[in-house]
Specification:
The protein has 240 residues and is α/β, with parallel strands linked by helices. It contains five helices and twelve strands. The protein has helices at residues 5-33, 53-63, 73-81, 143-157, 192-205, and strands at residues 41-45, 86-94, 98-105, 108-112, 117-119, 124-125, 135-137, 164-169, 175-179, 184-188, 216-218, 226-228. Strand 4 and strand 5 (117-119) form a beta hairpin. Helix 4 (143-157) runs parallel beside helix 5 (192-205). Residues 37-106 form the POTRA domain. This is Cell division protein FtsQ. Part of a complex composed of FtsB, FtsL and FtsQ.
Length: 240
């Protein structure tokens, strides 16, 4: 074997490659873990009205660990996502020492019962706000449907200066709307958009001319509607 120069040359080359690989690995490990490559700058991007600079600074100081190379991007993203008003955070490195964080903030559209808020994407989130918002009450998982319905109702009712203050969806998918003028609007299960448009037409021409306070309007009738007026008293029946 020791007289086989070709074999010895191949063995020497193999040992040389192995040594070179170990050196490169050690060098790479040092480069990525050495404290001479710290993250020196954190650049925050995004339109933020609810997330404060103090909150972001706290996360940066207490949650982010590692060097420019070893910092865990997914963990960093999750750390910023803990803030109540942060919907999403995209994180990327920018050579040589900067971390760029693009923050997408929740935009509150409505309250979800007493349990939280719903954003413009129909997603539940838990945060505090003193905004005056409509309230959605419905089965779990119906958030996106209710947000879509809220948008359609707002658009149609705006024609007569009304707006939904509370929107209800039953387990049987029947809709009710409390309007900002105190009227409860019953829309039922089918043809909800058509019934809303019919209510708007009748509000313009008939309902506002009634001399009594309107408590509720039921649009579930195929060719008409019913009105509940607590102050109305039917005239006494004439005796024959």
């Amino acid at each position: 074997m020791w007289d086989n120069h070709r074999l010895l040359r191949g063995l020497a080359n193999l040992l040389l490659l192995a040594s070179l690989g170990m050196v490169l690995y050690a060098a790479g490990f040092w480069v990525t873990h050495a404290p001479v490559f710290p993250v020196k700058r954190i650049l925050i991007q995004g339109e933020m009205k609810r997330v404060t600079a103090e909150q972001l600074r706290f996360i940066a100081e207490h949650e982010l660990t590692g060097t420019f190379f070893t910092l865990d991007i997914d963990k960093t993203r999750a750390a910023f996502g803990k803030l109540p008003w942060v919907r999403d955070a995209q994180v990327r490195r920018r050579w040589p020492d900067t971390l760029e964080i693009a923050v997408d903030e929740h935009k509150a559209l409505a309250r979800w019962g007493e349990d939280g808020l719903v954003n413009t994407h129909g997603e539940l989130f838990d945060a505090a706000t003193d905004q005056t918002l409509p309230v959605l009450v419905g089965p779990a998982g119906s958030e996106k449907d209710m947000v879509a319905m809220l948008g359609r109702l707002r658009s149609t009712l705006a024609d007569v200066g009304l707006a939904p203050s509370r929107l209800f969806l039953s387990d049987r998918r029947a809709w009710r709307v409390a309007l900002d003028n105190g009227v409860m609007l019953e829309l039922g299960r089918g043809e909800v958009d058509l019934r809303t448009a019919r209510f708007v037409d009748n509000w313009k021409t008939t309902l506002t001319s009634l001399p009594y306070r309107i408590e509720a309007v039921d649009m579930r009738y195929p060719n008409g509607f019913a009105v509940r007026m607590p102050d109305y008293k039917a005239p006494p029946a004439h005796k024959k």
